[in-house]
Amino acid sequence: MLNSKKLYLYHLLCLFLPPTKCHSLKAKLLRWCGAKVGVNVEITSSAKFYGGYNLVIGNNVYIGHEALIFGANGSNIIIEDYAKIGSRVVLVTGSHLFTTEGPCIEGEGIFKDVKIGKGAAVSTGSTILPGKTIGEMAHVAAGSVVTHDVPSYHRVAGVPAKVIKDLRIK
């Protein structure tokens, strides 16, 4: 599980590192924070990791500028080998139950895992909501909001994201 105090120091140190260099140092620092990080991982200095969750990053993964990876309450975020996370992508494991029976529409917090499959790509500005899985070799087009699981070898786009192409068909 990620240690919030160590993550604070990680983010502080990243302020002084070149945005697209020192990848092995950033991977080592994330391991020190409690993440499981593979080899040949490229993490930009502006990518942010927040919360008390289990983070697993596979081999040959890229995490782009200002990506926000936010988990909570022992949830899991798994980014498998060769996956690419674009700039300003948001991965989040927490949400709320919505009810009109309390003083606020947002009720009790809920937490669900997020998984990005092997070789998948999540393009710039996309949001992956709690409990969603992006399948192997799937593509989430820029600016999409993923509200359902994405099948392997498919491209989704839009708000909410919908399947627009089977990538196995030429």
TrEMBL record:
Q: Which family does it belong to?
A: Belongs to the transferase hexapeptide repeat family.
Organism of derivation? Parabacteroides johnsonii
Please name the GO terms that the record assigns under molecular function.
O-acyltransferase activity
Q: Name the GO cellular-component terms.
A: cytosol
Record carries keyword Lyase: no
UniProt protein name: Acyltransferase
Query: Which keywords does the record carry?
Result: Acyltransferase, Transferase
